[in-house]
Amino acid sequence: MTASSSHPASRPLFPPSTLATLVTAVLAGIAADLLWEVWARGITPHLVGGPLEPAALVQSVFGLSSRTLAEIIHGVVGVVFYPLGYLFIARPIARVVTPFLPWWIVGLGFGAGLWVFALYIMAHLIAGLPPFLGFIPLAWASLAGHLIFGLTTAAVVRLRKA
């Protein structure tokens, strides 16, 4: 441990700001987003009668009429910004606050945090929908999808040793 921190010197709190870190984030985002889409559009409709529609939420939040633009925004956020959030915010916080948790619990916690962000902050506080959509079955399917996303992001980061 270094004198200036309680974090082991061999394991820095933040990943280096390099092209390799960005590649790791994008690969994690692609893998997580692909699994999210399989869950959201392929499996969820069979479980709850309809797909998850994050683009509709993006449209509501930003007042967009273009479904295509909303899909692009959600895709870019999922492929680039959420994985960077995992690497530079969620994982460092977990390393400081709960360093004893295994990577997969941190990934699931990250996914749960994304769900809270999506269905409470964005859907409720910004778009004016009921908190967590009133906990209808679609909200629980969304939780599962976000857990899949978080776990996949963490797994790819771990596999790439970022």
Automatic annotation (TrEMBL):
This is DUF1440 domain-containing protein. Keywords: Membrane, Transmembrane, Transmembrane helix. The chain crosses the membrane at residues 12-32, 72-89, 101-126, 132-157. It comes from the Bacteria.
